[in-house]
Write a structure and sequence with these properties.
Layout lengths: L1 H19 L17 E2 L19 E7 L4 H13 L7 E7 L4 H10 L4 E6 L3 H4 L21 H4 L6 E5 L3 E3 L3 H5 L8 E6 L10 H5 L1 H4 L9 E2 L3 E5 H6 L2 H15 L7 H8 L4 E3 L27 E3 L6 H6 L16 E2 L8
Helix pairs in contact: 10-11
Main location: membrane
Subcellular location: Endomembrane system
GO molecular function: glycosyltransferase activity
């Protein structure tokens, strides 16, 4: 009996040795708080031979961090790294309305090599300025954080790409990063075929002073979920204050129905650097009220964006997915179980 006990002990020690040497890792991933899902670890992406130094040749990307959208954020980050020639040069600047250690731990465990920083966005900065819109998700303070991006990130960051969390990139982000902004503050795809007037109320267009806002400009719709921003010019031009001023008008007169988009249009529409539409195949989440399925627009695609009510992870989980949602699925790192056998 003593011999069998000894053999059992040796077997246990051997199993532990195998477990800690990564030949086979039998690990239990503990379930985090219910609002923070569990993700599997992403591969380590390395620079190509033509890349400069990861310490100096940075590509700065900003996104928001929120428990409700963390699954989308993880997919977006993976897609950026996977398609980047120089993934080690990409620096992520995450904006969060509160510091949540669980989310930070999730990022570190999912992307152990990720170069990122997290900044606090104080919700009280906009609470008195937000007007109710047609969709509750658009009214969240964090949705307005992009307005204050230049005030939050370090002063030595002079250019940044702002991205929403409901998108995936299928091209090298360096191509977007290198766009020539010329003398403009923002670069983004423009959509001049849309009815621009619908983004503002009759109150706006019937007021002779407000209606003259776009005089001297040819305003076109652009989506603020994909923007290259000249941060230095934004700071120098006081654009945060300019956008805020329109939010004050909105509180007084109700001149638009959507969240943070219209004040951007009021300040910048007709005065941005237009980039190819391939960089924002937007609207894949359908409209803001029902989120019905939509198909892809014709032409080349570098970025897929599920703007609108329908989010791919929710539609896939509910087994009511749209065809385009299956283009997002390969980037989904979500684990649906709390116990996993890892190889």
């Amino acid at each position: 009996m003593a011999l069998w006990n000894l053999l059992g002990l040796l077997s246990l020690l051997l199993l532990l040795t195998i477990t800690t040497t990564n030949a086979i890792r039998l690990g239990v991933i503990r379930k985090p708080p219910p609002d923070v899902p569990v993700f599997r670890e992403a591969p380590a992406f390395r620079n190509g031979d033509t890349c400069g130094s990861p310490n100096t040749d940075h590509i700065h990307v900003s996104m928001t961090l929120d428990a409700n959208y963390i699954r989308g954020t993880m997919a977006a980050v993976l897609s950026i790294l996977q398609h980047s020639t120089c993934p080690e040069n990409v620096v992520f600047h995450f904006l969060s309305s509160r510091f949540e250690s669980e989310i930070l731990s999730t990022i570190n465990s999912t992307f152990p090599y990720l170069n990122f920083k997290v900044y606090r966005f104080v919700p009280n900065r906009v609470r008195g300025k937000i007007s109710k819109s047609i969709r509750q998700a658009l009214d969240q303070p964090l949705n307005y954080a992009r307005i204050y991006l230049a005030d939050i990130i370090p002063a030595d960051v002079s250019r940044i790409i702002y991205l929403d969390s409901d998108l995936v990139m299928v091209d090298d982000i360096a191509k977007l990063w290198e766009v020539d902004l010329e003398d403009k503050v923002v670069a983004a795809p423009e959509y001049c075929h849309t009815n621009f007037t619908k983004y503002f109320t009759d109150t706006f267009w019937s007021d002779p002073v407000l209606a003259r806002t776009f005089e001297g400009r040819k305003p076109c719709y652009f989506n603020t979920g994909v923007m290259v921003v000249d941060v230095d010019k934004w700071r120098e031009g006081g654009y945060t204050q300019k956008v805020e001023d329109w939010m004050v008008v909105q509180k007084q007169k109700r001149i638009y129905h959507l969240g943070s988009l219209p004040p951007f249009l009021l300040v910048l529409a007709g005065n941005i650097k237009a980039v190819d539409h391939r960089w924002n195949q937007h609207g894949l989440g359908g409209d803001n009220l029902e989120g019905k399925c939509r198909s892809l627009h014709p032409g080349p695609i570098s970025l897929l964006h599920w703007s609108g009510k329908g989010k791919p992870w929710l539609r896939l989980d509910s087994r009511k997915s749209c065809t385009v949602d299956h283009l997002w699925a390969p980037y989904d790192l979500y684990r649906s179980s709390t116990l996993h056998l890892e190889e």
